[in-house]
Design a protein that fits this description.
Four copies of one chain form a homotetramer. Chain A is 15% helix and 36% strand. Chain A is of the alpha+beta class and 142 residues long. Chain A has a five-stranded antiparallel sheet. The first copy, chain A, starts with a strand and ends in a 27-residue tail after the last strand. Strand 2 of chain A pairs antiparallel with strand 2 of chain B, so a sheet runs across the interface.
Chain lengths: 142, 142, 142, 142
């Protein structure tokens, strides 16, 4: 199904901290990668959305549960899906899996308000409406 | 009350992204500052906890709600308090306020599992037990 | 002398990596703090420069030598001075010192091209000319 | 030639700053990727070097020249080669190229001291000696 994206990332040295595994605040960069690739897969380019359509996905909420540590040089699979679409908001859910072991390392979500450059909420540009008109639209699709 | 810490931080240029305000994943660094200063205020030094007491506060969950943007060079007040203490876990709640306007920019929490260097859960070292023995211990103290 | 700024920063947990001390790429955030505070001391606000004067200090070169490790929770003194001012460029030199021991942990510099929002080089706005008209202007003042 | 590595990375949203392109301190993460992939190509795994061989590549110096901006979502080619090998140090040179246009966006280098976990300089473990015994060994191979 097109609504799921899987992207592989490798853990960077800079992402670790002195505990010896990935610093918890760095998972959002992987969430972003998953979300941006899922949108690309749907035909949406975030750069074009921002520059041509004056449409920004401003983060209103983020959450992450950390089940097992991610370590330097690990290959991870970022699994992203759309959680919820409303008139002016869109939510995404993420799973971070160790690609070698299949272990789920973390699960999280982000909720975004669709805004213009000035930060005022707006609806998603009309050419893209149908992309999000799934049977789940308007409902939590978890 | 000693269980609340307020620390001032100034937003760094590196913390912004191309939307023109602080990248949402960078708020955790402020949470850490608030938590570490609150622990210091209670007499706990995180470096000593890790090196002398083999006691690490591993993050199990984090959450943040973003109400208003934080911008480069803003002075922020990080307000931190202990949310919950259990045998092997401790939770902290945070408010990020704009120091000039008093606006609450974000609220969040982190939940930590107390572990040894190998990542096995353990209890907090006994000299520190009484620090967390508040009337609220074992209950959500929000 | 007003051309030297000293600012104290405390090392953040997020700034460490799995070697157990600060990741080398994170020193630039301290350079920025030093440079921004030095400019503020001279009467220049970077936010106003960008927004009102359409004047950006785009980094053209950066360099850092790492002499001793910086560790989590260390208090550091960032010593910043202007290295060189030319028509369209300005250079800054930095020393990162351990505030407790006085050890110099790192030395570095950044060279900036003064640009407008579109990235075209420009001169510094005229109200600020005299701020940089030191005896050393146009010469390396090391 | 095995001494050159080319690795493709895509610019992350978190890597930009409010100027609208990549923050200059974030290029080191790409340098690390290039260096680690070059070492892997030579048969050296950085994780194993650290854990099994007690051998760390501590950064002693880094430098970067920024020629053109890197922007969010750009595909970049990181070109890495060994610059110099000495008894206890090793230097790497990097080029960051825009994969679409071929433009060189940045050039840089890092110099590393080979250390044990305690930070004392040491020689590279003997099984790996011959990997670096190129005609250029001991000379700057730029």
């Amino acid at each position: 199904l097109v609504e799921l994206n899987e992207t592989i990332v490798r853990v960077r040295y800079a992402e670790t901290d002195q505990m010896g595994f990935v610093y918890y605040g760095n998972y959002t960069a992987w969430f972003d990668i998953g979300r941006i690739e899922l949108l690309r897969q749907l035909g949406l380019n975030v750069n074009e959305l921002e520059r041509k359509d004056d449409c920004y996905f401003v983060v209103a909420e983020s959450q992450c549960k950390y089940h097992r540590p991610a370590r330097f040089d690990d290959l991870l699979c970022v699994r992203t899906r759309i959680l919820e679409v409303r008139a002016r908001t869109i939510g995404f859910a993420y799973e971070i899996m160790n690609e070698a072991t299949g272990d789920v390392l973390a699960t999280g979500y982000t909720l975004h308000v669709i805004c213009n450059k000035q930060g005022s909420p707006r609806t998603i540009p009309s050419p893209y409406h149908q992309l999000f008109e799934t049977p789940d639209t308007g409902h939590t699709s978890s």
